[in-house]
Amino acid sequence: MLKLTQPPPAVLALRNIAEELGKTDWNFNLNPCATTNNSNWATPKQPERPSYNNTVECNCSYTGGVCHVIKIFLKGQDLDGVLPPSLAKLPYIKTIDLTRNYLNGTIPPEWASTNLEYLSLESNMFSGTVPAELGKLENLVNLILNANNLSGELPMELNNLVNLTELRLSSNNFTGRIPNFESLKQLTKLEIHGSGMEGPIPESISLLSNLNELISDLSGESSLFPNLSSMINMTRLYVTGNSLNGSVPSWLTDGSGTVVVDLSYNHFSNETVLPTCGQSLNLFRSYTGWKDSDLAKCLNNFTCLKDYNSAHINCGGIETTIASKSYEADQDPAGPAKFLLSSNQWGFSSTGNVLDLDNYIYTVNNVSRLTMKDSELYTAARLSPLSITYYGRCLANGMYRVRLHFAEIVFRDNNSYQSLGRRAFDVYIQGAIKLKNFDIKNEAGGVDKAVIKEIKNIHVTNGTLEIRFQYAGKGTTVAPTKGVFGPLISAISVESESKPGKTSTFIIIGAVAAALCLALIVVGIAWQRCYRGGKMSREKDLKGLDLKSGVFTYRQIKAATDNFSDSNKLGEGGFGPVYKGHIKIKEPDINLITSDDEFRLQALKLKLEKIQSHDSDELVTSITPPSSISHDLYPNSQISEE
Questions:
Q1: Do 497 and 400 contact (CB within 8 A), yes or no?
Q2: ∠385-391-392 over CA atoms, to 5°?
């Protein structure tokens, strides 16, 4: 007869495991291997808690009908104890999954004596190093250590795990270089982004011919792209920011579209990078020699129609107007390796995907009612598990102010697994880090609250501004659900710090007056030197010129240039458009200027030093005697009469 009783040693082991984990709701009066009425040991799935799992599985097919515990799933339960060394007291255990808890401490070396095949400790608070003893788990197929505080170098003993098919090490604080995994020839999934380890990617990775997913962002020493041509099953290849150089392999760019590839932020040879902005091939900032304005070759087909002084984007949302500023819609579905030119003025690069999550969505919407000011900017947001880069194009060169709008609309503030999420990411502007390990919830003081970060004095050259949101391995990856981690941005506002249309009239008048006074001084000195010694009468006649005091009103300047008509535009100067204007004055006696004096009165160029204040123009005045005074104006921005 089949015995459905658990041997006392195993029950004792489960008691010890519960104590070490901090699990208090197991009822040891019930048989953990019973096949009926066993909700204590196998809780049914709950729609309101999709990430919760409380299951103990037994195998009762052993000799004599004896049952043994073979699997334990304790996921999303807020357990706050330590990893149980007593797991080693279950000699038949094959699976332990403790994903999404508050467990801490270190990985017990006692586990090396088990026959584990599946080990997941994702999204906890474990620290310390990975024990070399794990290399003795030769039957291990899946090793998932993502999103913890593990540190130190990975032990070389992991190369003994020859049956491993899945290895995830992301979101930790490891040090040193990535080991050579040449013996892990069964590996199909390798995820090491935000791990803390440094490159280069070892050449031995080319031996892992079964790889179909590789996610890496190893910083450090540059290297050639590894030979991955033998990986015929590859479907996802994300190697953004790995300092790769040399040529882009032709098998990645042959247009077959079978592999989703992200090569952004590398240093490939310019001539090997395709001029394309594809849906499954991201080449943003992928090659050496790019200028600030050269984000990708595909943008060469989109010339700037004009220079802009601002850009406003409602990230992930619809078009909306806030305080007379129109925020453009940004509802493209994006993708794991997508580079998009959304308009002639701006676009974005989206990088990353979540393993085993085929329908990842790169935008999110609020899950509760929002009451903050300008809530229209926060009801939707753009999200990515690895990196989002927004870039502005066709901007007028100068200094800019950037305002970044954030609100945590995914995680919750309650006593459920939905509050377990920790979002942290870095923000770079023009390649310089501005926010490190930025946590929206902490900065705002809770969820569904707005926080605005303003960064001033951002220098734009060659018309380009780049804002990058980068997941750097901090925070959780599967709490409250898989895929909601990574950078999140609600809205972006970029404005020039030079205010068009606010130039003060009195500044212009002062500039014109100064220019004329200096011009008169130069004319006077030349006149004196050429006509001294008995020619004082000419000087007297010259005084008859009606040069006034050199003070002109804005109305006079506007009239002189025919309201800054294009017909009076001379071209572009160092500080903007150059106009000419004519103000008639009294004609001098042409007989006063004789050839025997060898004095030729020509156009005298007088360049003012930069006249700069918050609302001032920069002005250069050109004076051309004798019949008129011609003013060439070089304004920073459009002049308005006040």
A1: yes
A2: 155
